[in-house]
Amino acid sequence: QMQLVESGGGLVQAGDSLRLSCAASGRAFSRYAMGWFRQAPGKERELVATVASGGSTNYADSVKGRFTIYRDNAKNTMYLQMNSLKPEDTAVYYCNAVRIGTGTYWGQGTQVTVSS
To answer: How far apart, in whole angstroms, are the C-alpha atoms of residue 105 and residue 2?
Structure first.
């Protein structure tokens, strides 16, 4: 069982930066593949970025070059550094953890609003 708690969202202006955090409680955090997803009003939830247990990363085309995902296994925490934010980045951002044979877990989400 794993619990995920996101933090760091807020209201910012276009061009600003934010850093989201996802704190995990549970065992074997380092063995989970982690990711950030987002859901804007009226749209489906979409993948933003992932970081594998080994540290390899993957990004949606829309955030490449602007967002950076990373993890600190010693702190059981994953981060999403978001730079050059755009109004279209406005969404609820969700933390996700997956481990084959164990399960998939989601956080409650944190709101990011980018004004133009």
So the answer is: 7
User: Tokens in use for 105?
Assistant: 């877990």
Contact 95, 42 (CB under 8 A): no
Cα dihedral 51→57→61→62 (10° resolution): 50
Are the CB atoms for 86 and 69 separated by under 8 Å?
Answer: no
CA dihedral 42, 96, 64, 69 (to 10 degrees): 140
Taking only the tens place, the pLDDT of each residue in 65-110 is: 999 999 999 999 999 999 999 999 999 999 999 998 889 999 999 9
H-state helical runs in the chain:
none
Handedness of CA 45, 5, 57, 102 (dihedral sign): negative
